[in-house]
Design goal:
The chain is of the alpha+beta class. Helix content is about 65%, strand content about 15%. The protein has a five-stranded antiparallel beta sheet with strand order 4-3-2-1-5.
Amino acid sequence: MDKMQTPPAGLTHLLDPNTLTGALVLAAAAFAIATIVVVLIRRFTRRLEKRMSDVTVLRFVSLLIQLAVYLLALVLYAHLIPQLRSVGTALLAGAGVLSVVGGLAAQDTLGNLIAGFSLVMSGAIREGETIKLYTPVGLITARVHLISLGFTLLVDADGNEIVVPNSVIMTSAIARISQENATGAK
């Protein structure tokens, strides 16, 4: 009876986080579970995209959630492995210092990302609209072709593409031009 209740030694060894084999099996399991969750998130995102006209925010949030799933799997895995617990504390301190250094080095880029997120969330301008944008280089009249999280792509009347950082758009006055005025018919 006792032999039936205790698992075979091979299975215990495979799941023991104190052994190399057990740590590798647990790593594979954590990665597999995280990958399955990410695939489900991607499928759900694709279904939602079909119902939405502006998918920029949805894609951004979906990527953040996918990244968070993998990070959560890594943290849980590190918590399961006794040898990684002490390394985790050092990595956390190092990540804090690295984030400060990276934040200082990428101020403009991060500013554009935050401005892009604000621009998309506020709906101040939308793709397909014709706008007048008052910028440091002068007045720009163009159609909004693409809004991403870092920049906005405008196309002027001559077909020239104008790439404007989102931080410039968020700090500039914008005049929306009605479709009647844009086509010349009043």
